[in-house]
Amino acid sequence: MGERIYGLLGRRLGHSWSVPIHQALGCEDYRLIELEPEELGGFLRREDIGGLNVTIPYKREVMAFCDVIDEGAEAIGSVNTIVRREGKLYGYNTDIDGFLYMLRRARISLMGKKVVVLGSGGASLTAQAAAKREGAREVVVVSRTGPDNYENLPQRHGDAEVLVNTTPVGMWPRLEEAPVDLRLLPAVTDVVDVIYNPGRTNLLLQASGWNRNEFYYDDLGLWDERYFRCAGGLSMLAAQAKRAEELFFDRTIPDGDTEKIVAWLWQDRTNIVLVGMPGCGKSAVGRALARRLGKEFADLDFLIAERAGKSIPDIFAQEGEDAFRALETQIVREAGARTGCVLSAGGGVVTREENYAPLHQNGVIVHLRRDVSLLPTAGRPVSQSTDLRELWRRRAPLYAAFADLTADNAGTIEDAADQIIKELEKL
Q1: Selection from 279, 274, 283, 281 nearest residue 302 by Cα
Q2: Is 222 a residue whose pLDDT tops 50?
């Protein structure tokens, strides 16, 4: 493989996950290839090209350099995979393979349904082709302008049953955004988002039912009876890469390998976020987890104090709790955008609903519990000013609402870390 070029072709690729995926699939020499538009033609004429994946902004531009274009890629109008065979460049589109795999994996059927596709770029073309292939009753493309746009979407297509986001809205680093509010589309039952970073976009978090949570509120009251099938872009990313590898080397790779890649990426890139009462041992257990799992550790309270240039008790004393909570939310958003970390959050992080999404988008939230009688109060302003049992009574439902799983810190630090690792393996 070393004598031929294999890699991802694009313009800005700093946050691509393609290299580890293709290396895991067996292409050890796979690399990132960043080119400016004027360099594209010269590069594609190289005789030592073996196989390339193509991403933004070149999926359409490379078609002019292909000698043969696959019928599926021609129908979609873009190429994301190029293979050189006997001096000719063959263009394919494996995005549709990945898209269809993502749907099957989530048990989402498009047959006979009205599908709304957000966005009109290359990924939109893939979604449209897949919807037509799968027998959708109607496919509507929504963009910023034109007859079907975001302003009139609820009025014109409130009967849509499947929503597919192919826009970059909600993608890193603008994680707080969402392309639409699902409460305005009462007939939607299936939500698909091709974004894979973050693992759960705000759109998917809304579809997963956070707004149904009884401890917060939903002012439109539409969530009591609505449950969605959801699909994120990570499985699409892995499946399209698997199909590209098959084309690169003319071999068959079992779908089980795709699932192994998805599981590995999830374990490698997902944050583990510890929440719980002040003094329950989040920092100590977090450090043990990070060491055991080979992940970076970050204590959000330490980051807050570092940003403020003063201790947390001093922030409370000089600026008040509201100022502290505002800074905490800022740090939560920054830390939650990381991947592959263990994060220890402050005891009151759950008191602000806006902290949930950034912690959960790339993370599994673990509620670490410890008997109230064992909780220290030194250096903890809220614990010192409030009866701990009353504080627990108020916060316990919020910890439960935030958490994906729970663990007890009733023995040693290593025992707690063991318990969390075993629980993570069940997810």
Answers
A1: 283
A2: no
- SS3 per-residue string spanning the chain: CCCCEEEEEECCCCCCCHHHHHHHCCCCCCEEEECCHHHHHHHHCCCCEEEEEECCCCCCHHHHHCCEECHHHHHHCCCCEEEEECCEEEEECCHHHHHHHHHHHCCCCCCCCEEEEECCCHHHHHHHHHHHHCCCCEEEEEECCCCCECCCHHHHHCCCCEEEECCCCCCCCCCCCCCCCHHHCCCCCEEEECCCCCCCCHHHHHHCCHHHCCCCCCCCCCCCCCCCEEECCHHHHHHHHHHHHHHHHCCCCCHHHHHHHHHHHHHHHCEEEEECCCCCCHHHHHHHHHHHHCCEEEEHHHHHHHHHCCCHHHHHHHHCHHHHHHHHHHHHHHHHCCCCEEEECCCCHHHCHHHHHHHHCCEEEEEEECCHHHCCCCCCHHHHHCCHHHHHHHHHHHHHHHCCEEEECCCCHHHHHHHHHHHHHHC
Segment 243-254, tens digit of pLDDT: 999 999 999 999
| 251 Cβ neighbours under 8 A, 6+ residues apart | 245
Q: Rounded to 5 degrees, what are φ and ψ at 141?
A: -105, 125
Give the HSE-up count for residue 278: Cα atoms under 13 Å, Cβ half-sphere.
Answer: 19
Rounded Cα distance, 344 and 323, in Å: 20
Q: Two tokens at 411?
A: 């023995």
Residues in the chain, how many? 427
Distance CA 289, CA 11 (A): 37
Tokens linked to 221: 């009251």
Place of tokens 């010192």: 384
pLDDT in tens, 21-58: 999 999 999 999 999 999 999 999 999 999 999 998 89
Structure tokens at 384: 């010192």
The answer to whether residue 132 is catalytic is no
Calculate what percentage of the chain has a pLDDT beyond 70. 95
